[in-house]
Amino acid sequence: MVEIDCKGLACPGPVLKAKEVVESQKPPSIRVIVDNPAAKENVSRFLGTQGYDICVETKEGSFCVIGTKKGEDIQETLIQERPRGATRKILVFITSRTLGHGDEKLGSALMLNFLKTLKELPNLWRIILLNEGVKLASDEGEAVGVLRDLEQSGVSILVCGTCLSYYNLIEQKKVGETTNMLDVVTSLGVADSVINIT
Amino acid sequence: MELPTDPNLLVGLEKADDAGVYLIHEELAIIQTVDFFTPIVDDPFYFGQIAAANALSDIYAMGGVPKTAMNLVAFPINQMDISILKEILRGGIEKLKEAGAVLVGGHSIEDRELKYGLAVTGFVHPKRLLTKRNLQPEDLLILTKPLGTGIVTTAVKAQLADERLVRQVQESMAELNKKAAEVMAAFDIHACTDITGFGLLGHLGEMVEGSGKSVELWAGAIPVFDGIEPMASMGLIPQGAYRNRDFRKEMVVFEGSVPLWLQDVMFDPQTSGGLLIAVAKDQAQALLSKLIQGGITYSRLIGKVLEDPSQRIYVKTKQ
After folding, report:
1. Are B193 and B271 in contact (CB under 8 A)?
2. Which of A:112-141 have CB within 8 Å of B?
3. A94 and A63, same domain (yes or no)
4. CB-based contacts of B177, cutoff 8 Å, min separation 6
5. Is A85 contained in some domain?
6. CATH number of the domain that A22 lies in?
7. Is B132 strand, coil or helix?
């Protein structure tokens, strides 16, 4: 068992020391000795995320956090990020509830058909719903089901949190992950091409 | 300790509010507050801005307008270049200008560790004074800035913070609560505070105690900086968060499904955090819309006040 003495270290010191050892030696079990409750909690959290079972022993004035590795396969899945390789990333950026401007009923029907047909688009990576577009993820209509199918097939769906909040739809959102402007801007930059639906 | 008394002292030390309030005459009270700390970001100009925004915030949280300010400086003049101090002060003055307050003086000492902050005085009409003590049943709670500044600061120390996130957090900390305060002035606000060192649950705890009510929070609705989850999960949590948690452990009841990292974020000590506003139920959505229209886009409805006098905070996953 690997043992590290982190007595006298303030946060985030103990986590950093444990991280160094875990990453370089990948020990099956590890003991980290700390002398303050915050470090005890933080080291426990860290080892927990690294696939260790945690147990803490308390001795006068110090704590010993003991981590024992769970099944190795858990670690593997943690390391494997979704492999995307060199495939192109297409982003569809939707800021309206309808497709095109004109008759609203026609626009809604066209939008639904557009979403349904999106599965035919190779390399579709992400859909971002902004402004009135967020209503597609929260309406009673069919769009929610179509978006869910896309999400299931691996397309990431981001829904603007500020917009949901503004339209009072936070509780009604049925699909996708709530996001913020930083994510939106980053996605626009990362995508190889952006299809803009206004 | 026995404190001197004065009938014109509207809010004093014993009431654990954001700042002290003293009545001048029927139509005017002054709000006084002081705040200073060691650097939390590397850039001195940013640090100056953040320290000033943080000091001014208490005035806004009490419904007032900042008028005058004084610098407090501790500076290691023998080890540090004076240009650093100049940048800090420049940052502070920039925020005072934005707030419409004037710098009337200050005091500096030599110290081994750099510290900066301000003492600020603001005006408020006594009838418009907002305290922490007036939560009403059914009020809805709005938070105007995302949480997580303490965790990100800890991640910076560990050199594990994403540069974009650090910038976003710095900007948020440097942002005055002025606009939010101006927007809320047109609404029926029952209580208000700003989120700082005790974290969301610590400061909400003071409101709950001061008002003799309970609160239900919706964890999933609480605005949090993007990218906090992995940092919190891996234990980059400042010591203060655990102190805040231990202090409030009797009061806060978490539903089992609220993830641990989010519980930690709710106790994370904030620097220059947002306003936590208790607004009459029928005006909440309108206030939220106005805040977002005003550019305070992280504003969210995060919970509601309960009649329950047991003074608890029940944290559920969602509404």
Report:
1. no
2. none
3. no
4. B53, B56, B57, B60, B61, B144, B194, B274, B275
5. no
6. 3.30.110.40
7. coil
* pLDDT tens by residue, B163-176: 999 999 999 999 99
Give the model's pLDDT for residue B18. Answer: 86
Q: Which residues pair with B118 in a beta bridge?
A: B35, B71
Calpha distance B106→B92 (Å, rounded): 12
Give the chain A residue whose CA is nearest to the CA of B319: A171
* Domain final position from A79, A108, A139: A79
**B44 in Cβ contact with B88 (< 8 Å):** yes
Of residues A104 and B204, the one with the higher pLDDT is B204
Residue B226 is nearest to which of A44, A45, A182, comparing CB atoms?
A182
Same domain, A98 and A61: no
Q: To 10 degrees, the CA torsion angle through B48, B50, B53, B56?
A: -70
Q: Where are the alpha helices (DSSP H) in A65-103?
A: 72-79
pTM attached to this predicted model: 0.86
| E-state strands within B144-284 | 189-194, 214-218, 252-254, 275-279
Residues of B within 8 A of A170 (CB-CB) are: 221, 300-301, 319
Is the pLDDT reported for residue A81 higher than 60?
no
A112 and A34 part of one domain: no
Same structural domain for residues A15 and A101?
no
Name all domains of chain B by residue range, CATH numbers in brackets: 9-128 (3.30.1330.10), 140-316 (3.90.650.10)
| Domain range for A148 | 90-197
**Among A165, A170, A188, the residue to mutate for chain B (most B Cβ within 10 A):** A165
CA B151 to chain centre: 16
Domain assignment present for residue A26? The answer is yes
Q: How does pLDDT run across B55-86, given as a tens digit for each residue?
A: 999 999 999 999 999 999 999 999 999 999 99
What is the torsion angle, in degrees rounded to the nearest 10, for the CA atoms of residue B145, residue B210, residue B278 and residue B28?
Answer: -90
Please check whether residues A46 and A115 belong to one and the same domain.
no
State whether residue B107 is helix, strand or coil: strand
The backbone torsions φ and ψ at residue A88, rounded to the nearest 5 degrees and listed phi first, read -70, 150
Residues A111-165 have pLDDT tens digits of 999 999 999 898 999 999 999 999 999 988 899 999 999 999 999 999 999 999 9
Q: If residue B53 lies in a helix (H) or strand (E), which one and from where to where?
A: helix B44-61
Residue ranges of chain B whose CB lies within 8 Å of a chain A CB: 154-155, 157-158, 160, 164-165, 168, 221, 223, 226, 232-239, 241-243, 260, 285, 288-289, 292-293, 297-301, 318-319
Cα separation, B48 vs B273, whole angstroms:
16
ipTM value: 0.84
List helix spans (H) across chain A: 13-25, 37-49, 72-79, 104-117, 143-152, 161-166, 181-190
CB pairs below 8 Å between A and B: how many? 79
What is the residue type of B311? Q
Residues A104 and A66 in one domain: no
End of a domain among A47, A79, A111? A79
